[in-house]
Amino acid sequence: MKTAAYADYLIQWLENQRTELYGMDGYTLGVSGGIDSAVCAHLVARTGAPVQALILPAEVTSPSDVADAQATLESAGIDGQIISIAPWYDLIMQQLSPVLNSEPERINVLKGNLMARLRMIALFTTAQSHRSIVLGTDNAAEWLTGYFTKFGDGAADVLPLAGLRKEQVFELGRYLGVPQSVLDKKPSAGLWAGQTDEAEMGVTYAEIDAYLRGETVSPQALQQIRFWHNRSHHKRMLPPKPKSPDEAEC
Ligand SMILES: Nc1ncnc2c1ncn2[C@@H]1O[C@H](COP(=O)(O)OP(=O)(O)OC[C@H]2O[C@@H]([n+]3cccc(C(=O)O)c3)[C@H](O)[C@@H]2O)[C@@H](O)[C@H]1O
Ligand SMILES: Nc1ncnc2c1ncn2[C@@H]1O[C@H](COP(=O)(O)OP(=O)(O)OP(=O)(O)O)[C@@H](O)[C@H]1O
Ligand SMILES: [Mg+2]
C-alpha cells in the first residue's frame, strides 16, 4: 500500500461522499480507544470539516480505553465529549426484562449488542442535529466475518476502512500519528471484560488478512472464517422485500 497516497485518497473520498452524495456539513463518529476509530478520527480531522467525536463508555468499558480515546482525539487535534451509555443500558435492560428470554444463548453478546445499538442512537441523533454523516469503522476483515452488531456499529453512512485489511489499518494508523498505546493494544469490541476479537472469532487477524490477500490459510482458520462469513450474510444485505401485488399478479 502506498500509505500516504491512500490516506489522501480516503480524505478526498470522504469529502466527496459528504458533499456530493449526501450534501451534509460534517462527520460524527464514536471513538473507543481502538485502532479503527482512531484511524477514522485522524482521517476526518484532516478533511477540515466539522467533526463531532463521542466517547461513549458503558459500565464494562475500561478506564484505559477511555484514556486512549482521549489521547486519540488529542493526537488528531479534535474535540470530543464523554457521555456514559450506562444509565440508558440499565433502564432498557430493566424495562425489557419481562419480555426477554430468561435464559438467552450468548448473554454477553446480547448485552454487548445493546451497547453497540445505544452508541448508534447517540451517534445518529448527534449527527442529525449537526447535519453530519455517521462514520462506520468496519474494516475488510470485520466486513468479511460480519464481526459487528447489525444496526449497531454496523449502521453508518460511510465505511471508509471497508477496503482495508486489519494490518493496513494499523499501517495507516502509524502513518497518521495514532498514539502508540492504541497501536499496541489487541483489537477488542470491549463488550465484556477481557473480550478480544481474535479469541471470540477463534481465528487471528493475521490469518483473516492472509485469506483476504488470497493466500492459503490453515484448515482451522478457513473453517472459522467460513463459519463467521456464512452466519452473517444477512448483515451485508438490505432487508428482503416481497413482490408488490401487481408484480405478484394478486
Ligand atoms: N441466521 C441468523 N442467525 C442469527 N441472527 C440472524 C439470522 N438472520 C437474521 N438475523 C438477525 O440478526 C440479529 C443478530 O445479529 P447481531 O445483532 O449483529 O448479533 P451477532 O452476530 O450474534 O453478534 C454480534 C457479533 O459481533 C461482535 N461485535 C459486535 C459489536 C462490535 C464489535 C466490534 O468489533 O467492535 C463486534 C460481537 O462480539 C458478536 O460476536 C438477530 O437478532 C436477527 O435479527
Ligand atoms: N466506548 C466507545 N465509545 C465510542 N465509540 C465506541 C465505543 N466502543 C465502540 N465504539 C464504536 O464502535 C466501533 C466498533 O468497535 P471496534 O472495536 O470494532 O473498533 P475499534 O475499537 O475502533 O478498533 P479495534 O477493533 O481494534 O478494537 C468503534 O470503532 C467505535 O466507532
Ligand atoms: Mg475496539
TrEMBL record:
InterPro entries: NAD/GMP_synthase (IPR022310), NAD_synthase (IPR003694), NH(3)-dep_NAD(+)_synth (IPR022926), Rossmann-like_a/b/a_fold (IPR014729). Mg(2+) binds at residues 36, 142. Gene3D superfamilies: HUPs. Coiled coil: none annotated. This is NH(3)-dependent NAD(+) synthetase. Homodimer. Its EC number is 6.3.1.5. Belongs to the NAD synthetase family. ATP binds at residues 30-37, 137, 166, 188. HAMAP family: NadE_ammonia_dep. The gene is nadE. It comes from Basfia succiniciproducens. Pathway: Cofactor biosynthesis; NAD(+) biosynthesis; NAD(+) from deamido-NAD(+) (ammonia route): step 1/1. Residues 10-239 form the NAD/GMP synthase domain. PANTHER family: NH 3 /GLUTAMINE-DEPENDENT NAD + SYNTHETASE, NH(3)-DEPENDENT NAD(+) SYNTHETASE. Keywords: ATP-binding, Ligase, Magnesium, Metal-binding, NAD, Nucleotide-binding. It is an enzyme of class 6 (ligase). Catalyzes the ATP-dependent amidation of deamido-NAD to form NAD. Uses ammonia as a nitrogen source. Deamido-NAD(+) binds at residues 117, 150, 157, 234-235. Pfam families: NAD_synthase. It comes from the Bacteria. It catalyses: deamido-NAD(+) + NH4(+) + ATP = AMP + diphosphate + NAD(+) + H(+).
